[in-house]
């Protein structure tokens, strides 16, 4: 069983990777309003590259290479007053370096106790709810187009 902190980080990183830049920027600014954010140094400045996307036959079968997609990644280290130096990482599909910077900064701040609770409640939870609502909307839209086939048996 994995530690709770690891599971929590995996969950918030998934939210950060799925959130559009504008929503992430507004939510992060609102959550950090009035707080002094530590400076940071780049361990890996935002850069754009390619990643292989893999799929599975029928969703659960053998894996195959579907194709390549562009990804942006970034890694930074906060320079905190308390001597801690949390490292923030971001990877997302697309070519948005600013989004990667914001996500890496949020990841690092979420690892700091003085920011963690506020960012969880004011950043991650609302963004996760937004993602869940969007997923439900798409599922309902897809369900409306579902066609059910059935076979009628003729009486002999």
Q: Which helices and strands appear, and what pairs or packs with what?
A:
Layout: H1 4-18, H2 21-31, E1 39-56, E2 63-79, E3 87-93, H3 97-110, H4 113-143
Antiparallel strand pairs: 1-2, 2-3
Helix pairs in contact: 1-3, 1-4, 2-3, 2-4
Describe, in plain words, how this protein is organized in 3D.
The chain has one domain (4-143): Enolase-like, domain 1, CATH 3.30.390. By secondary structure, the chain is an alpha+beta fold. A 3-stranded antiparallel sheet has the order 1-2-3. It contains 4 helices and 3 strands.
What's the structural domain tally? 1
- Helix and strand element order: HHEEEHH
Number of strands: 3
Q: Approximately how much helix is present in the residues? A: 40-55%
The CATH class turns out to be Alpha Beta
CATH hierarchy: architecture: 2-Layer Sandwich
- How many helices? The count is 4
The name of the CATH topology is Enolase-like, domain 1
Strand order of the largest sheet: 1-2-3
Largest sheet: 3 strands, antiparallel
Over the alpha carbons, how many angstroms does the gyration radius reach?
Answer: 20 Å
Low-confidence stretches: none
* Inertia-based shape: elongated
């Amino acid at each position: 069983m994995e530690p709770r902190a690891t599971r929590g980080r995996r969950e918030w990183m998934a939210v950060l990777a799925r959130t559009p830049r504008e929503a992430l920027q507004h939510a992060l600014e609102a959550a950090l309003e009035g707080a002094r954010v530590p400076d940071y140094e780049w361990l890996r400045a935002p850069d754009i590259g390619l990643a292989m996307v893999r799929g599975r036959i029928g969703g659960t079968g053998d894996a195959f290479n579907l194709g390549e997609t562009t990804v942006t990644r970034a890694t930074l280290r906060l320079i905190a007053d308390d001597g801690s130096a949390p490292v923030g990482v971001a990877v997302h599909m697309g070519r948005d370096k600013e989004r990667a910077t914001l996500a890496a900064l949020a990841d690092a701040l979420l690892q700091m106790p003085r920011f963690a609770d506020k960012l969880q409640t004011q950043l991650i939870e609302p963004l996760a709810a937004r993602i869940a609502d969007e997923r439900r909307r798409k599922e309902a839209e897809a369900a409306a187009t579902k066609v059910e086939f059935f076979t009628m048996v003729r009486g002999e």
